[in-house]
Amino acid sequence: MTFQKALKAKFDKGAREHNQPWDLDHIDARSEMQDELLDLYNYAKLYADIDRTTALEIMLWAKDMWHTLNE
Questions:
Q1: What is the mean pLDDT of residues 12-21?
Q2: Rounded CA gap, 55 and 63, in Å?
Q3: What is the Cα–Cα distance from 55 to 48, expressed in whole angstroms?
Q4: Number of CB atoms found within 10 A of residue 45's CB
Q5: 3-state DSSP call for residue 28?
Q6: Interacting residues of 37 by C-beta distance below 8 A, sequence separation 6+
Q7: Torsion sign, CA atoms 41, 42, 43, 45
Q8: How far apart are CA 60 and CA 19, in angstroms?
């Protein structure tokens, strides 16, 4: 699956599950991104047993982005 196809599938699934418009009036984008970054950080911790270097890069990036959004 390509990135674009995966992105569309994820969007379509979310649209069905949440049944709301995809706009700033209905979604707190900053909060949602921070939540996703926390999930990504935790998944990367699990992935460290498979590929520690990549996991650490992802964890550092997720933490930096979380702080950037928190400013």
A1: 87
A2: 12
A3: 5
A4: 13
A5: coil
A6: 62, 63, 65, 66, 69
A7: positive
A8: 33
